Fold this sequence. Notes:
Strand order of the largest sheet: 1-2-3-4-5
Oligomer: single chain
Radius of gyration: 14 Å
Amino acid sequence: MITRGEGARGELIARNYLTTLGYEILTVNFSCRLGEIDIIARHNSTLAFIEVKSRNYETYGDGFDAITKGKMRKIINAARQYIAMRGLHDVNVRFDVVYVCRDECRLIKGAFDLNDVY
């Protein structure tokens, strides 16, 4: 099981990894009444909402396996709130997942989209 400290460490590793890939980190741990987003970043002309999943071992699958439809719905609703709060209605949006396992990262670009849970 991942503790809060290990989760924060995984998010730091993910941010550093994303930066090396050209992502500009805009917000970390955005939270509203509708949900939470681990990382919000700009990648080229796209606004990326990024869920980070950390694992110590791959025994229970990769990080994407832990993202349920309910979790996707919360991330999407939080993203819609973020977009509305900042008036970013004409921006390209993507939902990525960064899977962190023992200091190694794997990025799944476009892991899901606004229509996946509705």
